């Protein structure tokens, strides 16, 4: 019976010019978005390669200098862009793209694409993900808002139920039919994205399809529930539209707003001022830098059994630099750790609020699978930081190994620069994505479907 | 008071009304009978200016409706088959609102008196009109006609769906308005009510008036027989 | 239109459950946005004050170091760098406008404070190492401007989509039009009643905002509300025109929802895409590489010219400063091209806002709140000009090796942001907003003519 209902619904959807137009329009939008996305991603990848090559040359050609001066010159690392970013840019635009790896400082990434974009960007971007997230549910709405209420108004519902069609079967059939109409959109968008991205992320594309399918299914089922209970198809339309506005437009904003309210992010001024204080006065505030250096000196003199710094077999400046570096690392680990914990709590709160809007579950999931979320960004930042620490350690060691009359008299050359490699994490496999959103979407879908079935059980056949 | 002069209305190929000649004088009830699609509602719509005639004219109180769309309605009241009111407002509020639309504002005590006059129980005056029966809503419609001191009244199937008692009450009210000099044009399928209420009766078929007569013309004759015969004859002529 | 007609329509509208619910939701949204905006603006102002304080304290400490040497409390050899021109620092801040709480605008993204000194280069003065939660930035804040641009049209649509069709579908239209009233007059009265309610709601919000922000009802606030009202007028007029097509209320709702999605979601995103594709920016990453290459060259050059650095205590500072200037000179054309492209983008967006009311209104609301792109651009330009003037003052001292005296510290330049005159803002905003008003009037006129032309819309699309 359900099969027959599904076939009938598909035929009606196909004959409905309005639905056909919107499907075609959405497909066209998706095509534009995917092509533009692919062009952008290719351009960004090329630019990044150019910049990385330029930067490598800069590092190698810096001429003879003291290794610590070289550590201050430092290296720049440029964040790679994932292939699937053409489907979903995630929050990538609002994250920096380059980081300066220098002595003493764990810098945050700078040059967010959003910094240079006009204010109109705040209205959102034309990416395939955004289209599916915002317009997809509208399409689901078009397919389902009149599904039950319309049949009731036309009197065909009475006829159907009179002929022994179970209302639950009717609702399920209409749900399946709506999903079948929406499925091609998903597959076209995702497969073209996968193809343009070089098929590398096919398993992830599968998970994306699942996530987006559940997301659209939630809307279809909820609209059916509304349609089953509404007085008229006009009332069902208004109800479904209100749901769409709330779930797609309003709640995601309120949720991020509430998250930022509950767990405020420190300003960069406060954050870096705190770091500077920690380094100067000690993490606990009672261990100033000068006394740390004194203690280090005393320990070193005792270890080598000498009286003065000049008698040491190592360059004390190098040792002190490295010790300072390591203390700084501890400070940064702690303060960045706190910052990341705040971001994590914000994300968790938003995810908890996904009960009010499936988009809050889908957005992070989609960005995670496309490698354009904060976690992917942080992974790069962590790799860059690891590289920075190794780089600076090696340079400090080189200073320490060259004792001399004055601490920074020694100059190193291209051999050392060449020895210090560049950051290589391009071919690293992406780490497993956070799939909590998928579980939440599945739960929401089941909830929405049971809601629709419950409404069907208490169906009024007459207007 | 109400006069149709060669009134014709075509919708594409279909001739809904073909050269209707008709007059309703003050204090007279004119009943239009005829099968569905005969042109009764079109006639009403043309008098109301809801549709523009293809040819001919509709006159209300000496005003050509087509050229005095607003002015003509000052003298005209209309009670559609279903008097739809704003369900979340009470009968009194609806009356006040609709009367106000036409610029004939009525105050609270007047409203009560009007509703009293059309026999709406005082307890119902301030109840949501969504809970009213069809008869009660029609009474509000009649009160509106009284409020605007209409000199002509158009009734579209006023008694369909009313129980005999409500139907009787309604006729009494219409009669009393007639006695004050109002001209009434009523389209109906209710032969009994037509016979009871009408001064004159017109039978329409396929956009034409096929029979017209005063209540005296019928004398002892059975209206149902006259009606069926003329409708049948008109259908035969049309087929030929 | 008779006042009594408007009055009766107002009374009818006020009894409508949709209005009560919609108005309540809108006012709640406004209330939340206002509360959040106020807290956010206060925190923002505090933050600026803190930066200002920290920078001033750091400079005061430097001044004390100089004063100590001058007073002979500390020997000059112990503080070889005291009074270095490189140490003078100013926090250049863009003060939040009095209405900043009403629109976040660019303020959560663009720098609103910069620490200006002889350190660094012009290209880095306003570069932020932002720690902000990117998801918050992407989602955008739930500010009053959002409520106006996104949610207000939805209330308008909710109140007007069945302006005519609702009366027809409920069956009241026949009785209404049997009264001596023209369809256009009736519909205009209903339209006007809705507009009055919307203006009253905006007025209520305005009063609440004035109270919450502790300002009087200023010209800026009135202008802000007027822009919102013009936007509401546009959407009401659009809904009015759609109603006169005589379709069913369902069809009207779909048409208007489609218009909302197209104008508020799709068109701005499309403008964004067009701007980025038509006017691509030079890559920031490649620019970094070029800057660093220039740095290598400049460092080698200064290494070969020891006479430019000298050999006193400021030798290193002089060398550093000269290197930075050389890099700037060498890369200036690149940055000029970048800035030109940014300017072209701004122009293109401004041009496109003529056809996109939400973009226009969003920009106008943030400009009037003092958080708009133009004010931030002006701030950036003024900071760079200030950096130049500071360098003009300090570089000769650095080159000559002249230390700052304690007295001089107090007389050094400070940054004050010069606001754009209201006339300039008006010149930018009034013409496109005027077009919006004209468009609205045109839509109304079109609708009225349509109603006048045909038969009264009592029987819906399928006449017969």
From TrEMBL, chain A:
Pfam families in the cross-refs: ABC2_membrane_2, DUF3526
Segments traversing the membrane: 21-39, 131-150, 171-199, 205-226, 235-255
Domain of life: Bacteria
Keywords: Membrane, Transmembrane, Transmembrane helix
PANTHER family from the UniProt entry: ABC TRANSPORTER PERMEASE, ABC TRANSPORTER PERMEASE PROTEIN NOSY-RELATED
Protein name per its UniProtKB record: DUF3526 domain-containing protein
Taxonomic source organism: Nannocystis pusilla
Automatic annotation (TrEMBL), chain B:
Alphabetical keyword list: ATP-binding, Nucleotide-binding, Transport
UniProt superkingdom: Bacteria
Listed GO MF terms: ATP binding
Domain ABC transporter: 2-231
CDD domains (UniProt xref): ABC_DR_subfamily_A
Family matches, as InterPro entries: AAA+_ATPase, ABC_transporter-like_ATP-bd, ABC_transporter-like_CS, ABC_Transporter_VariousFunc, P-loop_NTPase
A Pfam family of this chain: ABC_tran
Gene3D superfamilies (alphabetical): P-loop containing nucleotide triphosphate hydrolases
Name the record gives this protein: ABC transporter ATP-binding protein
Lineage: Bacteria, Pseudomonadati, Myxococcota, Polyangia, Nannocystales
Automatic annotation (TrEMBL), chain C:
Keyword field contains Glycosyltransferase: no
The keyword Lipoprotein is assigned to this record: no
Family matches, as InterPro entries: DUF3526
Source organism, top-level taxon: Bacteria
Residue ranges of the TM segments: 144-165, 186-213, 219-242, 254-275
Keywords, in A-Z order: Membrane, Transmembrane, Transmembrane helix
PANTHER family in the record: ABC TRANSPORTER PERMEASE, ABC-2 TYPE TRANSPORT SYSTEM PERMEASE PROTEIN
Protein name: DUF3526 domain-containing protein
